[in-house]
Known about the structure:
The chain has helices spanning 38-55, 74-83, 99-107, 121-127, 132-145, 164-174, 197-216, 229-237, 289-295, 322-329, 353-361, and strands at residues 4-10, 58-64, 88-91, 110-116, 149-156, 178-183, 222-223, 261-264, 269-271, 280-283.
Amino acid sequence: MKPYFSFQWHITDECDQRCKHCYIFSGGDHICLQSMTWQQMQDTFYNCLDFCEVYQRQPYFYLTGGDPILHPDFWRLLELFHEHDIPFTIMGNPFHLTGAVCQRLKALGCQKYQLSIDGMKETHDWFRKPGSFTCTLEKIQTINQAGLRSVVMTTVSKQNCQEVPGIIDAVVAAGANVFAFSRYVPSGGELDTTLSPQEYRALLSVCDRKFREYEAAGCETYFNKKDHLWTLYEYETGTFTIPGYACDGMIYGGCNCGNCHITILPTGDIYACRRVAESKVGNVFEDRLADLWITNMEAYRNYDAFSKCSRCKLQQFCRGCPAVAKGYTGDFYGDDPQCWASEENGLLTPKTEENEHESCSA
């Protein structure tokens, strides 16, 4: 188990945007916007600390929403974090960021502020709202000047995959400290999600080339290869090799679901993964997290149940994205639709009647 544990905590649904790939709004009109009360926020915070004390993990909070800064007790919660010397990242919108706001975030222990860019100007503003693209790029320097690390995240779909190289250029030019992307999970919206494995691998190849060029030129932006299929790509290209110390049955990397991450929504509902709608495992107002970790989370640690990954040489380091698999196939342990590992390229052991039966029964 990793030494830290991350809590993606959504304190409110309130938001200035209605993004087309948002898990709150993409399925249609979201009539009732939820927010935690101050008492609920305190109860949640101490429930999380209790969990970390029981399992000897270091707590790390990713505070988000909606836009968390819109919650009336946002600053009160950050003062509670500061009182307990708990590090945290804010994942929000750019619209309410000023120099004074960012300096206050820094003083209270915020380490990073994550923004989103999901295309070049026309595409991004279509995803989110007019003016969002320009505002987001401008606020990167506001974040940096306060001593926070600026993080830019892109959600990749069929609609914007061709624009990712341009996004990289834009965020580097704006001075972003970190850039990463992950794939869109089908959630009932209007986005085309039909990227083939070959198309996605080609995107990784283009991005890898750009990352290397920027790094060779002394670029200070850190390119976080967040998507686990980067492991597959780097294994093929020789950048990643399976370490000699690797032991059978040990998990060294890949999806953190069931390992070092949970999501808490404004309703108190606890999810093994925010991007898997059916992964609710309890409610933070009613359940002790330390107990749920054993009783309700074990199903997400059944690594041999993966229909494809369980036959792959990279099972201990990759496993693709189970949320994407669930969104496409309806099966959390199903095949990642953008994974190109196969028997032909030597990564998968051939299917046998025995292992096919085991995958089905799991």
